[in-house]
Specification:
Mean pLDDT: 81
Number of domains: 3
Radius of gyration: 31 Å
Oligomer: single chain
Distance between the termini: 101 Å
Shape: elongated
Structural class: alpha/beta
Low-confidence stretches: 462-494
Strand order of the largest sheet: 9-8-11-12-13-10-14
Helix content: 25-40%
Strand content: 15-25%
Length: 494
Amino acid sequence: MAAEDVDVERFAEQFGRFMEAMSARRQRRDSPLRGLVSGHLGVDPAGLPLLAERFATVEHPNLQLALDSLLAADPTQSVVGLPTELRHYGQFSLAGVLGGRFHGPADPSPIEYVNVAVDVDRSLPCAQLAVYLLRVDGVPVVAFLLLGDEHSGGGLGVEVLAPERHQAEGFVRRLRALMLELNVYRGKLLGFSFGQYGGFGMTFQRLPTVSRDDLILPAGDLEAIERHTLGVAEQAELLRASGRHLKRGLLLYGPPGTGKTLSVMYLCSRMPGRTTLLLSGPGAGALGQAVALARSLQPAMVVLEDVDLVAMERTMSERGANPLLFELLNEMDGLAEDADVIFVLTTNRVELLEPALAARPGRIDQAVEIGLPDEESRERLLRLYLRGVEHDVPSLDGLVGRTSGVSAAFVKELLRRATLVAAAEVGPGSRLVLRTVHVERALDDLLEHSAPVLRSMLGASSDGDFSRPAPSAAPPSWDGPPPGWVELRPGRRD
């Protein structure tokens, strides 16, 4: 046959098919992973149904703990790793390896782990690619854990092989039950963040120690907050037995720096076993995930700070309502009445809120105004922030009078600056004693020389008028509560 009679393109196509067939045949016959799986199951895995289950990436430590728990139950069980470069193959799967359709480097190798946070200062090594050869209730099961590549949008998944499909389904149910039982997020204070590629993550925050004495609020305000949160929690079983709902909504509103966030931290400190999910800033976008976690890890508390950014009254925006408003309303309505979940919402601008947030029972059941501290509260705040510093301040009367109309945050900053003034006066290595003159100098600086935006952030009026409004006065520039807000009455505590 002459060279010009050869169809090169056809020959290349047929030769390529031949090489693929030979490679697939060799993979099916010689794959060590296939041999391990076949030996464990006792049958050819190519004909078995494979069940794939997907999880949010934040469930990685819970999945690891569940698989480790199953592995530890029987010393004859084993686990093997796979090369982590397989995570970059978009079409990689256990079924592809066992069926000979994947021809990459799928030989068993040492397990490669990644450390995942499970508390503020503790992490757990979690496998990235691993094949678990388990025996559950006498049934051989193969579970393949795969943490996908985040750059390509891959998530966390498990592929399960068992002799029968119902056995694989039963294994997945047991796996999920163990993940819930061993959940690392239970009872923790959690924040939310979004990764570079769009996935959401969770951060552990240190549970604060805030005593009742640390929270300087009028007695009626503090009692109303405690009654609606701690009181219901303490009587949860009795209320549930009486057919009374446990889910509740609490709104804390008032000027900046008056103690709304500190009130939330106080509640966290008083309920250390309660899972608390803190949503602020961009983290508000994880509202749905937060409520789902609260539902599964109850008793729980969902805190949404600056709720006016999410739940602004619909007529006040040219674009209509924020989609997160509808999600918030739906999530608050969607919880079962016996769900022990507290919603705590905070805002500096109550007049902007959507009335529908409180129009239906079970959304906002209690609203408490956290106003500027009165004379007695300012004295208590000064004494609180003088703690831990050696001082010679015989009388607080003058300071209490001059700080009329400022917030708790202002008082805290005042004592911090006074300490700096005292330190600069005595110099390094000398004994520091905070005196009245140091506090007065710091106060002069804050009231007379600080930028208006700083005074505003600290809760002081920008025009220098620090007179205390009457207790029954409405918040500044507020013409009264929006329609439907039956609980929002300044001065009303219940």
